[in-house]
């Protein structure tokens, strides 16, 4: 299996996955990863963190199927499913093939925060062996969308 570079889907400040205020992510139950606290703006483009096919797709989260064994999950905010899409706009459809850096949706960190929810965005290598994940950005680093975030060997 070749190395997979996973890019930042949003601009912001990197946080350790253990800092995410949700045990499913913080305890890496769905897989290892990292999180980004996105810029506090009214509208933010969310880009594909790697090449893949859109698997699961919701206004607040999506999974990219990279190959038979690897999928990457991006979750925009915590408990944002309760917003029922408010503040989010999908630009792609399930089953669509996308390339790294392609705009997939927009969301409003300002609206999510105004709803009292965390805007932090976990980026997870679904069901990966933690030993196969290398962090390319450290907690506290500022990243732009498209900057290297993780490498999955």
TrEMBL record:
One of its GO terms (molecular function) is kinase activity. Its main location: cytoplasm. One of its GO terms (cellular component) is cytoplasm. Residues 22-127 form the PTS EIIA type-1 domain. GO terms for biological process: phosphoenolpyruvate-dependent sugar phosphotransferase system. The keyword Cytoplasm does not apply. Keywords: Kinase, Phosphotransferase system, Sugar transport, Transferase, Transport. The keyword Kinase applies. Pfam families: PTS_EIIA_1 (PF00358). InterPro entries: Dup_hybrid_motif, PTS_EIIA_1_perm, PTS_EIIA_component. It is found in: Cytoplasm. NCBIfam families: PTBA (TIGR00830). This is PTS glucose transporter subunit IIA. It comes from Cellulomonas gelida. The lineage of its organism: Bacteria, Bacillati, Actinomycetota, Actinomycetes, Micrococcales.
């Amino acid at each position: 299996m070749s190395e997979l570079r996973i890019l930042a889907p949003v601009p912001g400040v990197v946080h350790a996955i253990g800092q995410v205020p949700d045990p499913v992510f913080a305890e890496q139950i769905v897989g290892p990863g990292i999180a980004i606290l996105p810029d506090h703006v009214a509208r933010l483009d969310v880009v594909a963190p790697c090449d893949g096919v859109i698997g699961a797709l919701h206004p607040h989260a999506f999974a990219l199927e990279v190959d038979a064994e690897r999928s990457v999950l991006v979750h925009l905010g915590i408990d944002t499913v309760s917003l029922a899409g408010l503040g989010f706009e999908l630009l792609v459809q399930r089953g669509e093939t996308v390339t790294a850096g392609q705009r997939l949706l927009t969301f409003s960190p300002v609206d999510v925060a105004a709803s009292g929810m965390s805007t932090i965005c976990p980026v997870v290598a679904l069901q990966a062996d933690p030993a196969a994940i290398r962090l390319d950005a450290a907690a506290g680093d500022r990243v732009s969308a498209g900057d290297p975030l993780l490498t999955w060997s």
